[in-house]
Amino acid sequence: MKYVILCILISIIAYWYLNDIFTSEEEFYKVRDVTNNIQNIFKELDKDENGVLNEDEFSDLKNSYSILQKDIYGTQSKYAVQEFPYFSIQFGEQVVNIDVNFKPLLLSSLAKNVSDIEEEKNSMLGLLNWKAPYKEKHPFGAKSFSPFLPTKEDIQPGFTWWIVEPNNDKYSPPLSNERYYPPQVPSNLLVIHALLSLFHPHPFLWTRFQPQGTVAILRAIDDNFYDIIFRIHAEYQLNKPPLHPFWFTPSQFQGRLIINKDSSVVKFFHMEVPDTKLNVDMEWLNGPSEDSMEVDIGYIPQMSLISSAISVPRDNERGANQKLHDIKWHAEISVEEALNSLELQFFPFKKVKYYRRTLRETALASPPILEILNTHFISFWSIVEDLKEIIKENSDSAASFFARVCLHNYDFPVESIIFTPNGSVIHRININALLGLVDEQESFFEIRDPVEKNYQEFLENALLMSKAIKVDLEKSSN
């Protein structure tokens, strides 16, 4: 009897499930596209024939028609998608166990008050639901890390090489916002994709904008081992269709790998988003057009990977014989020097001496601009939160005075302000205005990057204005 009851229950569930599917499909195929008949529909709804639909007339629309929103992004990708790559660990190969440490973004760090934006919560759903990493730990074969090895053998500390080369230059348009799933990556880069996927299953190895790619530097060397420092610029898509895209772009991933020269032993691996006050950029769409884009920056307390021990033989939990501190490097540079060298690979303009942070515009890579800045300006760059902190810490200091000048003249998102030592503002320009000038001047026959051209003009005009101020002061003093 119990088998009969079980069969009946299965039959009922199957009938209900299949009936629901076929009913849904049947109702879908009954939908008629009336786009070409829209003018007649308007006349039908316009009862008083005044050429305008009032609220009551428009409400009648739902009595006769069903409004379907067009899925402009599609649920299927138009390209081959990269799934999480599972690496086979060969017999006798040593295993690297990677632990994942993740604490979600602090919503209080956003400029937006998330609790006050109910209409945007659907767009931010991927962020709000991201409370834990995709995987808490994962094993890798030591050989999987071979793509991190330097491209040459006879090298010394300070040698740099690209692991993931940028796939566009400053004259190329940015990659599309309208993507949800990471495209397939070359086999030699699967390990980087896998490492990034431990946090979230949809990483993109190539960001939409510069800086882009992964670069490494040899920090130290001995007879058998390399100490490698690397830096990754990657981003994540947190939403899925039918939600609009939400891009999550960490400031960078810094990492360190101690590996022997044939990649059979990994002594140490660590990778993290640096713990700075604001370390993530976010962009999302609240509607189908680019005009609905929102941007914000925030703080993620922890997003890191670390090897739980030295790589070990698959059948041995005690670890390799040689411990990490037993390595005696024959030649080395400091970690700080290595990180600075990596930064120069992404931002050549940092060869100019700056104070605080740097601006990431390509204009600052221009030799004429670098020459002007070196010769005539003391340059410093900061984020708004740092300026506020300076004022809070010591409101009477010279740094606090200049911080107030900057905040008083700042407009979102990026402002370049030139002022004299006494705080008088000579000239200023917002990045939106700078890019607006580019749109007005855009030409297929432009040889030089228009952003560089306009930024150089901005600096040169400021120098002329400062000279005029100096002349006026000299006249008034006489």
UniProtKB/TrEMBL annotation:
Every EF-hand domain range: 33-68
UniProt record, GO biological process: calcium ion homeostasis
InterPro entries membership: EF_Hand_1_Ca_BS, EF_hand_dom
A Gene Ontology molecular function term of the record: calcium ion binding
GO CC entries: endoplasmic reticulum membrane
PANTHER family, per the entry: SELENOPROTEIN N (PTHR16213)
Protein name stated in the entry: Selenoprotein N
Lineage: Eukaryota, Metazoa, Ecdysozoa, Arthropoda, Chelicerata
Gene symbol of the encoding locus: selenon
